[in-house]
Write a structure and sequence with these properties.
Elements (H helix, E strand, L loop, with lengths): L3 H13 L9 E5 L2 H11 L11 E5 L2 E5 L4 H11 L6 E10 L9 E10 L17 H13 L5 E8 L8 H10 L3 E3 L2 H10 L4 E9 L10 H27 L13
Parallel strand pairs: 1-3, 1-4, 4-8, 5-6, 6-7
Antiparallel strand pairs: 2-3, 4-7, 5-8
Length: about 260
């Protein structure tokens, strides 16, 4: 195989155990298997087996993919999705709130992400900003309000570090960025979405407040967040893509020229 297209058309089925024709044109991305299962419950779909690296299911033209955790996996899934050229791609992720204003269960609609992960430097120079597709975020904003909820909007810092909550120097640095939240995927997804000409957005759920010792995520606290907030997170994501799918909002104006 010599070209990128040859590679991704071979590798997307290999990573997901799904044929290219199985994928919908509207994609939800997640890091969690329970998101896939709850999506199936909401859409009346059969839960997929655990026989692939990226657990995937399609229902009513919307595909959800658990691509795993971290910036490298985020880049992989966006490259692979170029094989099917989605019309819209929405990341439903969890994040740590950096501001004392954010609480567990809050929603964050990122207007930009800081590229602290390094992976995206293989796609664009560091000075290129990491931005979502505007109309994606506009549709998500409407869906959140239709569900009677509100959201924070601001910048997310994306890092490739998983265990940093003990590192006071790193936490002090995060404060200087004025970011509202921290995660491991958003900047990579936005940047690689642009590189692959896939309109990409994100809606993040605050799962912890890692700037204080008592706010660091635990198995118990994460289970509580999942029980209380995740189903609504998924419903909002589904409704956001349904709006675009039904042409209530469109991302067709977006043009890539580089």
């Amino acid at each position: 195989m010599e070209t990128k297209r040859e590679i991704v058309e071979n590798w997307l089925p290999r990573y997901t155990n799904r044929a290219l024709g199985y994928f919908g044109r509207y994609v939800l991305l997640t890091n969690f298997n329970n998101y896939v299962d709850l999506f199936c419950e909401e859409m009346g779909a059969t839960k997929p087996d655990y026989d692939s690296n990226m657990r995937t299911v399609t229902a009513d033209g919307i595909t959800i993919i658990n691509f795993g955790m971290g910036s490298p996996n985020a880049a992989i899934v966006m490259d692979l999705l170029s094989a099917v050229a989605p019309k819209a791609c929405l990341f439903l992720g969890k994040c740590g709130g950096l501001s004392d204003k954010t609480q567990k269960g809050d929603l964050i609609l990122p207007i930009a992400a800081i590229r602290g992960e390094g992976t995206s430097n293989d796609y664009f120079p560091p000075e290129v900003p990491s931005l979502p597709a505007f109309m994606m975020q506009r549709a998500v904003s409407t869906a959140v309000r239709d569900h009677g909820q509100d959201y924070w909007t601001g910048t997310v810092y994306t890092t490739n570090r998983r265990v940093w909550e003990h590192d006071q120097r790193f936490k002090a640095y995060l404060e200087t960025t004025r970011a509202l939240a921290v995660d491991m995927e958003t900047a990579t997804l936005f940047t690689c979405g642009m590189a692959n000409q896939i309109p990409t957005g994100a809606l993040l759920l605050v799962s912890d407040n890692p700037m204080t010792p008592e706010g660091v995520k635990t198995a118990e606290s994460d289970s509580q967040v999942t029980r209380t907030f995740v189903r609504d997170h998924i419903r909002i994501g589904i409704n956001s893509l349904e709006m675009i799918k039904q042409d209530k909002w469109t991302v067709r104006h977006l043009r890539y020229d580089f």
